[in-house]
Automatic annotation (TrEMBL):
Alphabetized InterPro entries for the sequence: Cbr1-like_FAD-bd_dom (IPR008333), FAD-bd_FR_type (IPR017927), FNR_nucleotide-bd (IPR039261), MRET (IPR050415), OxRdtase_FAD/NAD-bd (IPR001433), Riboflavin_synthase-like_b-brl (IPR017938)
Cofactors required: FAD
Coiled-coil portions: none
CDD domains, per the entry: PA_degradation_oxidoreductase_like
Keywords: 2Fe-2S, FAD, Flavoprotein, Iron, Iron-sulfur, Metal-binding, Oxidoreductase
GO molecular function: 2 iron, 2 sulfur cluster binding; flavin adenine dinucleotide binding; metal ion binding; oxidoreductase activity
Name of the protein this chain belongs to: FAD-binding FR-type domain-containing protein
Family annotation (PANTHER family): 1,2-PHENYLACETYL-COA EPOXIDASE, SUBUNIT E, NADH OXIDOREDUCTASE HCR
Domain FAD-binding FR-type: 2-116
Lineage: Bacteria, Bacillati, Actinomycetota, Actinomycetes, Propionibacteriales
Amino acid sequence: MVTAHELRVGLIEPLTDDSFLLGFAVPPQLRDAFAYRAGQYVTIQTELTPGNLERRSYSICRPPRQAWPDDPDADGLLVIGVKVLPGGRFSEWARDHLRVGDTLTVLTPTGRFTVRDDSPGRSYGALVAGSGITPVMALVGDVLETNPTATFVLHLINRGPDQVMFARHLEQAQRRWPDRLRVVHHWSRTPGPDGTAAGRITDDALVELLRTETADGVSEWFLCGPQPLVVRSQAALAELGIGRRLVHTELFHTG
Ligand SMILES: Cc1cc2nc3c(=O)[nH]c(=O)nc-3n(C[C@H](O)[C@H](O)[C@H](O)COP(=O)(O)OP(=O)(O)OC[C@H]3O[C@@H](n4cnc5c(N)ncnc54)[C@H](O)[C@@H]3O)c2cc1C
């Protein structure tokens, strides 16, 4: 059962011009309640205007093993990645007003965007856009750390290089697992070095990408991005014969 707790903000750190890490200190007595699986999210409850309780969900970006220190008496740090939307009530408020030491009401983790089959040697794939990278950061770290023969390919769609959340963390992960992590960037607004025109990834290109990776062995997929992208990819993977249980989707926004 999900329960609500007051947590102290223990970390605020920029990721890009319009996104940042937000970490909550989890005291030892709440560690069990806030235990989570990679890919899950928490919900923050705030009164942005008096009398109006609002809720926003954010995926946890750190693998569980990195959240909890070995010392059972020390606080853990549960970290999320927030993208600031123009006019976004919570994200702009958090960027402008939230400070380390403040407290927020946070609901315990939940969600089903998690690994189904963790047997040795599995290949996982993710196709994400923008802030959709957040839960996948936890998944990549968790899978590659805990399953020494697993591989992960990550297709990442952003407007341009300066929009990539976790760029530095991704580079570190690639250095750590050069043979087991492949990151492929797709720019939707920036021409490539060879001058190729960039634009929204076409349906044909999307199907081809999923077909190629699946033929190369990816057997479990994580899709997180705008609804049309997720729906098209889901349909393509169904046609390729990947069972629904092995295609995970997370929609941040349905409008
Ligand atoms: C399960 C789940 C996990 C999520 N994880 C993350 C995460 O890890 N990082 C993150 O930054 N966000 C995440 N979100 C989205 C987040 O909950 C908020 O919806 C988002 O931050 C916008 O809130 P806001 O109050 O700033 O904007 P609002 O004031 O609610 O909305 C401002 C405007 O933006 C539109 N809008 C709302 N959300 C989006 C969106 N995602 N994309 C485009 N337009 C949008 C609204 O329709 C409205 O027009 C997640 C959502 C869900 C359901």
